[in-house]
Amino acid sequence: MASLRTRGYFHYRWQTGQIAWLLHRLTGLALVLYVSLHVWVISSLQLGEGTFSATMAYVASPLFRFLEVGLLFCVIYHALNGLRLIAIDFFGATEKHV
Fold it and tell me: pLDDT tens across 53-70, in order?
């Protein structure tokens, strides 16, 4: 009797649509994390000018400047992929598989 073997999660053969789906979710998560960080920075204003200045100095570091470039990629990819999904879902801009 042949043994039943399962392949691991990462041994799956990824298709283009699956990669786009995963990247859309990951960039959405990154945008949610950014908005949360943004709200935290702005809310530090309530704690006084000194706290806000310290927070702004922290987020002005080279690490955060580098992360802003990643944020730009996330915004552009998420927006363009969202438009692609709208075109597919509402305007039938894809092949129909029978």
Answer: 999 999 999 999 999 999
pLDDT at 89 over 60: yes
- Amino acid, res. 77: Y
Domain ranges of the chain: 15-91
Check: pTM over 0.85? Answer yes or no. Answer: no
CA angle 17, 19, 22 (to 5 degrees): 110
Q: Using alpha carbons, list the distances in angstroms from residue 51 to 40, 66, 98.
A: 12, 23, 61
Alpha helices in 44-61, H assignment, sequence order: 49-59
Q: Look up residue 76 and give its two tokens.
A: 């552009």
* C-alpha span between 21 and 28 (Å, rounded): 11
Tell me the C-alpha distance between 23 and 2, whole Å: 37
With b for 16 or more beta-carbon neighbours within 10 A and e for fewer, the 55-78 pattern comes to: beeebeeeeeeebeeebeebeebb
